[in-house]
Design a protein that fits this description.
Elements (H helix, E strand, L loop, with lengths): L3 H14 L5 H31 L17
Helix pairs in contact: 1-2
Length: 70
């Protein structure tokens, strides 16, 4: 959730101040936290919306939009 991002930023700032981690590692950790906060919820909403459009049912070999075979 979005509450994790400030925690990651604070922990990486402390790590940088104490010279436990380098700037590259700190940037990678913050970037990974940003991806998890921004991208993963959007993907989940898109997948949920797709399932709701089908009534929750999947028919193998048929697309959700047209009901026709691939």
């Amino acid at each position: 959730s979005s509450t994790c991002l400030p925690l990651v930023v604070a922990i990486t700032a402390i790590g940088l101040d104490e010279k436990v981690i380098g700037a590259g590692e700190a940037a990678a950790l913050v970037a990974a936290a940003m991806v998890s906060v921004l991208v993963f919820p959007l993907l989940a909403f898109r997948l949920l919306r797709r399932e709701e459009g089908d009534g929750g049912r999947r028919v193998p070999g048929r697309t959700a939009e047209t009901g026709e075979a691939w």
